[in-house]
UniProtKB/TrEMBL annotation:
Protein name (database record): NADH:ubiquinone reductase (Na(+)-transporting) subunit B
Pfam families, per the entry: NQR2_RnfD_RnfE (PF03116)
Organism placement in taxonomy: Bacteria, Pseudomonadati, Pseudomonadota, Gammaproteobacteria, Alteromonadales
Residue ranges of the TM segments: 49-68, 74-95, 107-129, 149-176, 183-202, 257-278, 285-303, 315-333, 345-363, 369-389
Coiled coil: none
InterPro entries linked: NqrB (IPR010966), NqrB/RnfD (IPR004338)
Length: 403
């Protein structure tokens, strides 16, 4: 009997069976338990954590897919032509070609035809690299690739080439994560690192408005692009006036041009609120990002050039433009790449919020500042924890009279 238990334990811990056990554990849980004396027992693990994060992202995914189809429909009504792509052809085989008469279900399906290939390609590439490194290290295959692929896909424009998805997610997983030891050892957010790579390497394929709408001949501009071009004016625009502004509500609800999962601030806040309630995200980081963004925005509003749309832009507009909300709720709160101490988390969030506004104002060619702000703060997170630890050590030494 004792021998059979030991054999079973060795089989569960065998590195050669990790990939098979991983897929099996997604549907069937084994009854293995630890045999040593003292262990902390908790129902939460990596798989359940990633599943909950995916559920929290569900409102963002659904609204993002619908808005992708909606923006394509509105562009066609405005005079653009249907996209000459295999996704559009696939949609036309199932439904009629996209037009002004297309219903809500078909509009959602059109967006799904563009989002699903992006996500499947990102998912397969992250899974491939995770399997390669898990096999090489003889380690377990963790479920973190699921959320990495999802977050990366939500930051993509709908009309992006799939080879860019392969390139970006591969860079993020391999260079920003696996080369530093894999899950739990990376100091940069892999989804953002992959996004930053293709953002700088292929800016024309990612940053133009034509890539954000799944049609041909689109000539509109995002809210961030209009602000960067100084086409929106916020002179004498108080922050609370946004709540009576129809354009602000449209941006808040998410019915505007943008990356697939970055448009609906409402959906992101709903999912992010659930993330905070389950304590998978720390409220200090979210509060810090909001505080840093609001304070820095107010300073630019007061001391900046009132003729510049960026410096006059109130914080309520910063909240609903670009990927700020998604970055605040789901990127900055990554438990691996953020600070670990409680004061460090607050400082980390403040740095992200302040840097976002500074990057948006200082570099009009890069209005999407939240991505670089989080990556920049990732580099400073260990120093923040070190400073907090040193401060606590000195305080306790002084309190206990050891100095």
């Amino acid at each position: 009997m004792k021998k059979s238990k030991q054999t079973r334990k060795n089989r569960l811990d065998a590195p050669g069976s990790t990939i098979k056990d991983f897929f099996r554990s997604m549907f069937i849980g084994h009854g293995g338990s630890t045999q040593d004396s003292v262990h902390v027992r908790d129902a939460i693990d990596v798989k359940r954590t990633m599943t909950l994060v995916g559920l929290c992202l569900l409102p963002t995914i659904l609204l993002g897919i619908y808005n992708t189809g909606l923006q394509a429909k509105l562009a066609i009504i405005a005079g653009a032509s249907a996209a000459n792509s295999w996704q559009s052809s696939l949609f036309s085989l199932i439904f009629k070609p996209l037009s002004a008469d297309t219903g809500a279900v078909a509009t959602f399906s059109y967006g799904l035809c563009y989002f699903l290939p992006i996500y499947l390609v990102a998912l397969l590439m992250t899974l491939l690299w995770e399997m390669v490194f898990a096999k090489a290290r003889k380690q377990d295959l963790h479920e973190g690739f699921f959320v990495t692929a999802l977050l990366f896909s939500l930051c993509m424009p709908a009309h992006i080439a799939l080879w860019l998805v392969v390139l970006g997610v591969s860079f993020g997983v391999v260079v920003a994560k696996e080369l530093f030891g894999g899950m739990g050892y990376n100091f940069l957010n892999p989804a953002l690192a992959g996004l930053a790579f293709i953002y700088f390497a292929y800016p024309a394929e990612v940053t133009t408005s034509a890539q954000l709408v799944a049609v041909d001949g689109y000539s509109g501009a995002t809210t961030l692009a209009q602000v960067a071009a100084n086409k929106l004016h916020f002179t004498d625009y108080a922050w609370y006036q946004a709540f009576s502004d129809a354009s602000w509500w449209q941006a808040f609800l998410g019915f505007e041009v943008g990356a697939i999962g970055e448009t609906s601030t409402l959906a992101i806040l709903l999912g992010g609120g659930l993330l905070l309630l389950t304590r998978l995200a720390d409220w200090r980081i979210v509060a810090g990002v909001m505080l840093g963004m609001i304070v820095s925005t107010l300073l630019f509003n007061y001391f900046g050039n009132s003729r510049s749309a960026w410096t006059a832009m109130p914080w309520t507009w910063h909240l609903v433009t670009g990927g700020f909300a998604l970055g605040m709720m789901f990127m900055a709160t990554d438990p691996v790449t953020t600070a670990y101490t409680r004061p460090g988390k607050l400082l980390f969030g403040i740095l992200v919020g302040a840097m976002t506004v500074v990057i948006r104002i200082a570099n009009v060619k890069m209005p999407e500042g939240i991505m670089l702000a989080i990556l920049f703060a990732n580099l400073w997170a260990p120093l923040m924890d070190s400073l907090v630890a040193r401060f606590n050590i000195r305080r306790r030494i002084k309190r206990n009279g050891l100095q």
